[in-house]
Design goal:
By secondary structure, this protein is α/β, with parallel strands linked by helices. About 20% of the residues lie in helices and about 40% in strands. It has one domain. The strands form three sheets. The protein has a five-stranded mixed sheet with strand order 1-3-6-10-11. The protein has a four-stranded mixed sheet with strand order 2-5-8-9, with no helix packed on it. Strands 4-7 form a two-stranded parallel sheet.
């Protein structure tokens, strides 16, 4: 599945741009993780195409995104060390297993069938 996702990333992005509106594709929002075990995105946070995750984490945490098939988005793990870290965040849907994102790294993701899949490798 990941190779198929990587091969189709350009088509998915193009289809997102051709869709109902271009504005959400161009928006990047900041999400302040509250250091709970699982932080669920709000509707306004989810409307952003890119997410910069901040906040002081004391353990590895989850970032829960809505289960919207073919949703393609970008996440930057810009969290800080709240003690004993720095820590990764797992980007996932409520019912999925998710993908870990190393602190200080960024990555493209795609939601498909209640699961989050990585598109390409982590970037510095």
């Amino acid at each position: 599945m990941p190779n198929e996702l990587q091969a189709n990333a350009g088509d998915l992005l193009l289809n997102s741009i051709k869709g109902n509106s271009v504005a959400p594709v161009l928006q990047v929002g900041e999400v302040t993780h509250d250091d709970s075990a699982a932080y669920t995105l709000t509707a306004s946070e989810y409307s952003n195409f890119g997410l910069v995750v901040t906040g002081a984490l004391t353990a590895a945490r989850q970032l829960v995104v809505p289960n919207t098939d073919d949703y393609v988005f970008f996440v930057v793990n810009n969290t800080t060390d709240g003690g004993g870290g720095p820590y990764a965040i797992t980007v996932k849907t409520s019912g999925g297993t998710g993908v870990s994102l190393t602190n200080g790294k960024s990555r493209w993701f795609r939601v498909k069938s209640d699961e989050v899949y990585p598109i390409g490798a982590e970037s510095p």
